Amino acid sequence: MKVVIIGGERIAYFLAKSFSSKGYRIYVVNKDAQLCEDFARDLKAVVVHGDASKRSVLEQLDIEEEDIIVVLTNKDKENLIITQLAKKIFGVRNIVSLINNPDNIELFNKLGITAVVSTTTMLQRALENLLFGKELEEFLSLEEGKLAFLKIEIPENSSVIGKKLKDIGLPHDCVVGGILRRGEVIIPHGDTVLDVGDRLFIVAVPTVQTEIAKLLTGEKNAEEI
Amino acid sequence: MKNNEGLYLVIIGCGKVGGNVASKASSLGYNVVVIDKNEKAFENLSVEFTGFTILGDATEKDVLIEAKVEKADYIFVLTDDDNTNFLISMACKYYFAAKNVVARVYEPDNIQLFNEYNVAVVSPTVLAIDKLSDFVVGDSK
Fold this sequence. Notes:
The complex is a heterodimer of chains A (about 220) and B (about 140). The radius of gyration of chain A is 24 Å and the shape is elongated. Chain A is built from 7 helices and 11 strands. Chain A has helices spanning about 10-20, 35-40, 55-60, 75-90, 105-110, 120-130, 210-215, and strands at about 1-5, 25-30, 45-50, 70, 95-100, 115-120, 135-140, 145-155, 175-180, 185, 200-205. Chain A has 2 domains: about 1-115, 3-Layer(aba) Sandwich (Rossmann fold), CATH 3.40.50.720; about 125-215, Alpha-Beta Plaits (2-Layer Sandwich), CATH 3.30.70. Chain B has a single domain, classed as Rossmann fold (3-Layer(aba) Sandwich), CATH 3.40.50.720. Chain B has 5 helices and 6 strands; from the N terminus they run βαββαβαβαβα. Chain B has helices spanning about 15-25, 60-65, 80-95, 110-115, 125-140; strands spanning about 10, 30-35, 50-55, 75, 100-105, 120. In chain B, strand 1, helix 1 (about 15-25) and strand 2 (about 30-35) form a beta-alpha-beta unit. The N and C termini of chain B lie far apart (about 40 Å). Classes of the chains: A alpha/beta (about 220), B alpha/beta (about 140). At the A-B interface, helix 4 and helix 5 of A face helix 3 and helix 4 of B.
């Protein structure tokens, strides 16, 4: 069994380094000749210079069904055809792919590539956490992000404290499924009054996430005080 | 003659081939939408072309939505890159349940993969090889 790392620059290098130090046989494939020279010098790996979206290049790698293939180019179209060649022509079962455009995650999944990593999505999450602080946490995203489960903590001086759930004007496309208050679980209804420190568990479509976060964590505005 | 009124054809990649087929289909009564990411490419359409053009990258889902590929009777995927054509063909089939997807495939090695996913293939390489082989075989007789 070997690990074949296709495309990528620094990520490919560090992955190869880390796996070769654990004793795996590593093959690295890259289109960039200079990069291949550097890899050959610095890594304990078989380095192949070529375009892995070409079947003839893949054929040079003696790929076996139990190999692990990691696809890291910065173009989804390359990643897609490489993963499909590996799967359909070479019968490889364990394939991991980087995905650049989050819209393509579902497509890769439908074509049998379920181990996918989308850096765009990861950065998006990290940014959202920065934007909304620790109060909003998307803790689960289902069906490729069509449905989000959110956890939001009501901060001090939030404008919704002391109000009934039905009166705060939550958007239609969400449901508050549960509230954790001082360790106790409350299944809320419209008349439930919100308190500081409440943790709300919300099921929502992703487009209303921002609105919900603003509503629940927003401070009282001047006219309300 | 076949009645083409109301048939909907989406052509992705408006080069010499795409532009010509689009113009012909349009003159035969098809509703045609042509997508290309390069505005100049639309110069390959004839003056009689009455369909629509979309300037955009068809590897992006939004562009395929705009082109209403789910309603297309035929989709011809004709960019000059096999990998691009594969991604677009797969998106058409799996996101939009498109039935008749035909892709141009230059590399004969790739034909099997397109066929595995029920994408019909037109390969200029294979066509040229076959045609030329006819001459060679013809001469040897």
